[in-house]
Design goal:
CATH superfamily: Aldolase class I
Bound molecules: glyceraldehyde-3-phosphate, zinc ion
Enzyme class: lyase
Keywords: Lyase
Strand content: 5-15%
Radius of gyration: 18 Å
Shape: globular
Cofactor: Zn(2+)
Number of strands: 8
Organism: Streptomyces pseudovenezuelae
Helix content: 40-55%
Pfam family, one: F_bP_aldolase
CATH architecture: Alpha-Beta Barrel
Structural class: alpha/beta
Length: 286
């Protein structure tokens, strides 16, 4: 099946009142596991590569991107490629040639007007290249390299009136919103502001994106999708599954040396985690 675009998956999900699952990939095992999970759920999926993952891969986007494209082309479900949490203009400009149909440009750490100016420039460029672009307004805390932030602190959440102006003035295609989730949570204990999600959904004419979804319990995710969230970003949940499974395997098999043995176990655990989350989101049938 050929690669599809993130924009078409999000549009379909919005029409179906479901959400597109978007998983962060770091290794080839992540790529294979997410596609296996989506195939098991018979649902489309977004593979996303964050700027931090590119840094981990010695600053090179292409090796992981090419592997993801090759795996996606052989998948039995629609798969799209998204470049996530991009701050570097140099990385942004690699998106098209590397096979991505969409980017999330992250200038949310900047004051409002600076975020707007940087995002508008990124959106102009992205649209000139045919890319779908997501940006962030408000503070979804827990990002690598940034100071800790309380998702419930006053001023952390996205303001609907400001968000309306931000979307209109920047021209972005989707907005990541701060509604109570936090990146990199290892417990599923986040509580979301569902009234705010509904207000944002009513105020904006673009789809809403939930970040930091690993820490969000199933019933909160279901309610968030019902309230208008159309793309759900998940990263840490895969790493929790992979690392836990490998840790258990190596504890039970201290003599193990062949990396295929424990990577298989880690990959299977990630595939099952992805399948489960996709089913919770009620993904549109592939
Ligand atoms: O953009 C990526 C997501 O927001 C991942 O967050 O690792 O907390 O699931 P998470
Ligand atoms: Zn995120």
């Amino acid at each position: 099946m050929p690669l599809v675009t993130t924009g078409e998956l999000v549009t379909r999900a919005t029409a179906a009142h479901s959400a597109v699952p978007a998983f962060n990939i770091i290794t080839l095992e992540h790529v294979e596991a997410v596609i296996a999970g989506a195939e098991a759920a018979r649902a489309p999926v977004v593979l996303q590569v964050s700027e931090n993952a590119v840094k981990f891969r010695y600053g090179r986007l292409l090796p992981l991107a090419r592997a993801a494209v090759a795996a996606a082309e052989r998948a039995s479900v629609p798969v799209a490629l998204h470049l996530d949490h991009v701050q570097s203009d140099d990385l942004l400009r690699q998106a098209v040639t590397a096979g991505f149909s969409s980017v999330m440009y992250d200038a949310a750490r900047l004051p409002y007007l600076d975020n707007l100016a940087a995002t508008r420039a990124a959106a102009d460029w992205a649209h000139s290249q045919g890319l779908w672009i997501e940006a962030e307004l408000g503070q979804v805390g827990g990002k690598t390299g940034e100071p800790p932030l309380d998702a419930h602190a006053p001023g952390a959440r996205t303001d609907p009136v400001e968000a309306g102006a931000f979307v209109a003035d920047s021209g972005v295609d989707a907005l990541a919103v701060a509604v109570g989730s936090t990146h990199a949570m290892t417990t599923r204990t986040a509580t979301l502001d569902h009234a705010l999600i509904k207000r944002l959904s009513a105020a904006l004419d673009v789809p809403l994106v939930l970040h930091g979804s690993s820490g969000v319990p199933d019933d909160e995710l279901t309610a968030a999708v019902a309230g208008g969230i159309a793309k759900v970003n998940v990263g840490t949940a895969l790493n929790l599954a992979m690392t836990g499974a490998i840790r258990d395997f190596l504890a039970a098999h201290p003599e193990a040396v062949d990396s295929r043995k424990y990577l298989s176990v880690g990959r299977e655990a990630m595939a099952e985690a992805a399948r489960r989350i996709i089913q919770v989101l009620g993904g549109t049938s592939a």
